[in-house]
Amino acid sequence: MKSRPAHRCTECGYASAKWVGRCPECQAWGTIQEVGIPASPLRAVAAGPVTAPAVPIAQVELAAARAVPTGIDEFDRVLGGGLVPGAVLLVAGEPGVGKSTLLLEVAHRVAASNGPALVVSGEESAAQVRLRAERIGALHDRLYLAAETELSAVLAHVEDVAPSLLVLDSVQTVRSPAVEGTDGGSTQVRAVASALTAVAKSRAMTTILVGHVTKDGAIAGPRTLEHLVDVVVSFDGERHSTLRLIRAMKNRFGPADEIGCFEIGDNGVAGVPDPSHLFVSRRTAPVPGSCVTVTLEGSRPLLAEVQALVAASGGGGSPRRAVSGLDSQRVAMVNAVVERRGRVRLADADVFAASVGGVRIAEPAADLALALAIASAAKDVPLPRGLVAVGEVGLSGEIRRVGGTGRRLAEAARQGYKVALVPEDAGSAPKGMRLVEVPDLGAAFARLF
């Protein structure tokens, strides 16, 4: 049959018989490009040989899916216990956040305990990687380095070294000569990731791919890249802060909502097993506009402090609303509820809200602490010392329960907090803590102010 033109989306791979301006699958504009593909007739597919016979699910061997710990507890927590042989991981983060340093330490731990590890860098020379390894103390005889940008050369190194772990930094810098497309483009990234995934599965070799991010913080490349891999990990952190957070956005071998905390320094990246002290200010006396809450990242409760500042507006326009580390839409909603239901005048005042330590708080459990911080700043009255607030605030001013209240309060009690402001029917209080149940925001303000 004759070849006929076809059109494919460079972002998600959606195929269409005609050109359209917007992809119906991923809703991206200007990504549909014409590609020539031969039309093949439909054929009946006959049964062929199988790679292994089907067995009852209870008889499937689990040894190949056991996670091997790396020795870095915070990294293993996010992955669900460690690295699974044959798994493909995608680690994405902004430039300079510390991805290469952390993965070099992971490769060093694997080389020292499990087998050879290969680090292939497409962005730096082997000498530059060696300098970083010396600085963080990650030198080992079974840790191999290579600087390549061709897929065939990477596969040759894999055949020669036979590593148990392959780290490719990064997948956007490696190109495959078998397909057309610009370096780092969607077609090239898809081809490289597919080839390395097939090699990882056939050799039971754990593979870690480093990915770039766009200006919006999304992973660069086609969406297919996230579907191909088994684990997608996001490495976040503010440039002015030494704190780094690892989140698993997709995990086929464990929970997809865990968080790992690291602190970056001159000697590399070190895990922080108890990061609550990083997100709470240490002061001798309470100040207005500050309240402590407990967020839940996966199964891990973390104490976080919410601060607010209410100042008289300079006039000449709308009052300012500035937010840092919080969801701006949620802050705007809590502002409106505090003014309307809590009867705190904010219409002619500038309101600033922020979290401490660079942590990002997005869950509704921090609504009550944010409302108390705003009211405390507006009234210029500090909250009692040793108070923690947990609860979601509704548009009518009611305070709702949130999940994991018991774990949250237990962590607050362990950190020395004596009083907790919670919604009604929040459960029993931990030892050494007193619960103050409030049905709505007005009742909370009446108890505290």
TrEMBL record:
It comes from the Bacteria. Keywords: ATP-binding, DNA damage, DNA repair, DNA-binding, Hydrolase, Metal-binding, Nucleotide-binding, Stress response, Zinc, Zinc-finger. CDD domains: RadA_SMS_N. Residues 350-449 are annotated as: Lon-protease-like. One of its GO terms (biological process) is recombinational repair. ATP binds at G93, E94, P95, G96, V97, G98, K99, S100. One of its GO terms (cellular component) is cytosol. PROSITE patterns: RECA_2. The keyword Cytoplasm does not apply. A motif (RadA KNRFG motif) lies at residues 250-254. InterPro entries: AAA+_ATPase (IPR003593), DNA_repair_RadA (IPR004504), P-loop_NTPase (IPR027417), RecA_ATP-bd (IPR020588), Ribosomal_Su5_D2-typ_SF (IPR020568), Ribsml_uS5_D2-typ_fold_subgr (IPR014721), Rubredoxin_2 (IPR041166). GO terms for molecular function: ATP binding; ATP-dependent DNA damage sensor activity; damaged DNA binding; hydrolase activity; zinc ion binding. Pfam families: AAA_25, ChlI, Zn_ribbon_LapB. Residues 64-213 form the RecA family profile domain. PANTHER family: DNA REPAIR PROTEIN RADA, DNA REPAIR PROTEIN RADA-LIKE PROTEIN. The middle region has homology to RecA with ATPase motifs including the RadA KNRFG motif, while the C-terminus is homologous to Lon protease. DNA-dependent ATPase involved in processing of recombination intermediates, plays a role in repairing DNA breaks. Stimulates the branch migration of RecA-mediated strand transfer reactions, allowing the 3' invading strand to extend heteroduplex DNA faster. Binds ssDNA in the presence of ADP but not other nucleotides, has ATPase activity that is stimulated by ssDNA and various branched DNA structures, but inhibited by SSB. Does not have RecA's homology-searching function. Belongs to the RecA family. RadA subfamily. This is DNA repair protein RadA. It comes from Geodermatophilus obscurus (strain ATCC 25078 / DSM 43160 / JCM 3152 / CCUG 61914 / KCC A-0152 / KCTC 9177 / NBRC 13315 / NRRL B-3577 / G-20).
